[in-house]
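Students often ask why inverse folding is considered easier than folding. One informal answer: many sequences map to the same fold, so there is more than one right answer. In these notes we will look at a single instance of the problem. The structure comes first.
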């Protein structure tokens, strides 16, 4: 019988540790049919490819695959169906220990599918997508979640009007959490206010409407180029006008690496870490996002623990909470400083560099262990 320090001092068992909150990714899960070719094919030609595979894909779902391999409890929320390929996606999520228990299952729905051509000579990935009239997650699906179980919710910028409603729903939850804590004067709250992140990936200008609600934003190279931005610093500078005060913004740019704007306005950057040979860049951006979510979420939870165990800071904490009730427009991502952001972006670029040297996502967990 192990008697803990706590038991010796207090005489009872410690209160049960609440289970670790999850990171939730809201977006698409689809079937990726991947053909590995020596060169990108010519139109109306007939040839053999080097390799063929099919795998579970979709931005949000890929990010879950990566986080799960880093040991992060995570959940996917997106529309699924009872169709055979969607069954494959569900089996695969079970295999990777990704929760999907809140996904609505459409009877007679299809399975969104992408055909992907990987070119060995250039490392490019060409994607041809069909969405099978995919319906999107709605607010009423989202309201079924118990938000107490999550510390971070990441959105793929898809159905903007619905995603906005979900973000507002989280904001209200955040307010109720901070209000409850300041009323009860609880020092270490069981409840964690949720951090919201969003990815602007597709070339749709309306996606900018999501920025005012996000604590953390990822701006893809494709989106940036579609706005006429030529590089990462221009992207960060221009996009920050539309973001919430104190937001953290990332811009990743393939072999140029990535850059980020910290809440205090400073900029950090990290070059790419290309592998000896680029094998598979499909899902590079999703891997980068997952690495950042994983890293910052860990920092957030560690910060909370640290903060709450510091008696001398309890007054400061109450003041900050009241401040948050007054103004929900300002981010309170105080766990992200310049040093943390530099570490996060470096981790993101390193993990992604390793990923593009591998087929698919398997093997990332052992690469990650080598970093520790
Ligand atoms: N060709 C490359 N060489 C080296 N690093 C790369 C390369 N492509 C991507 N990366 C790494 O991946 C990160 C994310 O890149 P980026 O967002 O441009 O990927 P993407 O092609 O958009 O991915 P996705 O297939 O998910 O859309 C970069 O910051 C960089 O660290
Ligand atoms: C998608 O919708 C269009 C028009 O509503 C319809 O013609 C088509 O059959 C649908 N496709 C599938 C795969 O359900
Ligand atoms: C979610 O929260 C509820 C109530 O707080 C709890 O009963 C449940 O076990 C939690 N689920 C997970 C997966 O943590
Ligand atoms: C977004 O969702 C709403 C409600 O489900 C739907 O009416 C609308 O067509 C969707 N819009 C887009 C752009 O997907
Ligand atoms: C970015 O913002 C700057 C300053 O606000 C402006 O001069 C520039 O035209 C913008 N770039 C693009 C591509 O919109
Ligand atoms: C980024 O692009 C802007 C606008 O074209 C340019 O002024 C700036 O010098 C560029 N920065 C770098 C680092 O290339
Ligand atoms: C906790 O309090 C100590 C002493 O006042 C201080 O040095 C430390 O920085 C505090 N830690 C945090 C996370 O605020
Ligand atoms: C949720 O609350 C946290 C902590 O107070 C804060 O950092 C964050 O900005 C809030 N997010 C939203 C969307 O309200």
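Output (designed amino acids):
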């Amino acid at each position: 019988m192990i008697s803990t320090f706590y038991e010796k001092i207090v005489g009872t068992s410690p209160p049960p540790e609440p289970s670790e909150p999850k990171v939730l990714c809201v977006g698409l899960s689809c079937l990726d049919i991947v053909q590995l070719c020596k060169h990108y094919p010519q139109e109306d030609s007939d040839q053999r490819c080097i390799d063929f595979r099919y795998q579970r894909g979709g931005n949000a779902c890929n990010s879950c695959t990566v986080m799960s391999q880093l040991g992060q409890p995570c959940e996917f929320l997106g529309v699924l169906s009872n169709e055979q390929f969607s069954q494959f996606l569900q089996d695969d999520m079970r295999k990777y220990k990704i929760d999907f228990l809140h996904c609505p299952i459409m009877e007679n729905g299809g399975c969104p599918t992408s055909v992907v051509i990987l070119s060995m000579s250039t490392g490019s990935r060409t994607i041809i997508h069909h969405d099978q009239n995919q319906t999107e997650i709605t607010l009423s699906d989202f309201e079924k979640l118990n938000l107490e179980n999550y510390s971070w919710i990441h959105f793929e910028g898809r159905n903007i009007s619905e995603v906005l409603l979900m973000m507002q729903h989280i904001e209200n939850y955040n307010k109720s959490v901070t209000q409850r804590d300041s009323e009860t004067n609880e020092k270490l709250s069981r409840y964690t206010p949720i951090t919201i992140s969003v990815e602007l990936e597709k070339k749709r200008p309306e996606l900018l409407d999501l920025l005012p609600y996000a604590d953390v934003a990822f701006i893809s190279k494709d989106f940036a180029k579609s706005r006429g931005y030529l590089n990462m610093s221009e992207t960060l500078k221009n996009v920050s006008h539309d973001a919430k005060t104190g937001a953290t913004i990332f811009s990743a740019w393939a072999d140029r690496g990535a850059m980020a704007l910290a809440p205090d306005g400073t900029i950090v950057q990290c070059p790419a870490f290309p592998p000896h040979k680029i094998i598979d860049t499909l899902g590079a951006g999703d891997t980068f996002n997952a690495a950042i979510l994983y890293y910052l979420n860990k920092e957030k939870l560690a910060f909370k623990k640290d903060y709450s165990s510091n008696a001398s800071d309890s007054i400061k904490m109450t003041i900050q909470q009241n401040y948050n009730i007054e103004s929900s427009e300002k981010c309170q991502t105080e766990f992200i400083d310049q040093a943390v952001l530099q570490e996060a972006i470096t981790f993101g670029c390193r993990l992604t560099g390793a990923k593009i040297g591998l087929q698919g996502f398997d093997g990332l967990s052992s690469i990650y262990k080598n970093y520790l």
